[in-house]
Amino acid sequence: MNNVNELWSKRFKEYNNETKRYLKYMLNDHLKFVLIFAIGGGAYYYQQWLATLSSSFRGEWIIALLLGLIVTRSPIATFFKQPDLVFLLPMEEKLKTYFRKSATASFVLQLYSIIIGVAVLSPLYMKMTGNSFNAILLLFVLMLVIKALNMSMQWSSNYFQEPSSRWVDLIVRFMLNMAFIYLFVLNAYPLFIVAVGVLLVALTAYYRALTKKKPLPWEQLIELEERRVRFFYRMANMFTDVPHVKERVKRRKYLDVFLSNIPFAASASYRYLYTRSFLRAGDYLGLFLRLSVIGIALGWFIPFLYGKIIVTILFVYLTGFQLMTMWKQYDLKLWTRLYPVSSDVRLRSFLQLLKGILLLQTVVLSLVLLFTNVMAAIITLVIGVLFSIVFVNTYVKRRVQFK
Hints:
By secondary structure, this protein is an all-alpha fold. Helix content is about 75%, strand content about 0%. The longest helix is centred in the N-terminal third of the chain and has 34 residues. About 25% of the residues are buried.
């Protein structure tokens, strides 16, 4: 038993030290400035938006949707590694303490998301219901209980062999969580709230009974842990070099059309290479799409002219800042040094690609604003184009030349 406790303590300490080491680079001065600016601006416009809400506005769905997402996603970090499949397999029966500690640590780590979610949605909740702080405190306590139930159910779902079963579990839990939160915020008849709560407890007990005698799904747990760690490393790799990141490439043949206009010439070697990297390697394209979708959503729902403009420029900046890591994509590849191409051509090719990406994002975000505020769309397009050009030609150029 002592060996199991020592193993967990060692694994958790290693994870904690590794996380702190990379967070120092991720939470740099630039990101802190952007976060302070975004939080301050978001809080101001959030307050302004709340003041415009009428009594007929149905905010219960917003609260139920966001808090439902937070409590539904409840993974347990096991800190497993590939060799554990061999070396820890004989100790499977003695790992109950190990998993109990992992569940406790995961619950504490995910507690921040509940605190932030309830804190952000509390003004909307009080605006709609007029309830006091005690009701918010009760909502927070209930979120903790639901979170614990969801962690238990998500752990049990790891025993399901079919991916479709895990997807069904995810959807069912989300619907139940959302229904419970919606009924509570709506001040529904208490019997309805209790009924949904009983369903959650019963489903948790059913999952436990269903998986009680099943062997530990080592492959599934190791894969999930590797995916969790890989996600953190990919995030950290946007700010500093992370040797643990394993390159993933997807074919995406349907995007080859964007490569057809690149000439077959030595001067276009790096232009082709970086363009293909953006489309296929790592998660650059996914990052661009995610930030664009979030920027579109915020720009659409923010009712204020300056808020729309600021959000758009902010997301263009975030995209450009995080895509800068693509410059170092091939630093450790010896074959790129065989290119008969000067370093100036490489720099120019990268800056042109990044500038094109940011200009494309600016145009897309501005076009969406046309449906909400024509003046905001025009101003955003002009400022966004100027910002993209200046940002790439000054800040990005200076940063990558010293790397």
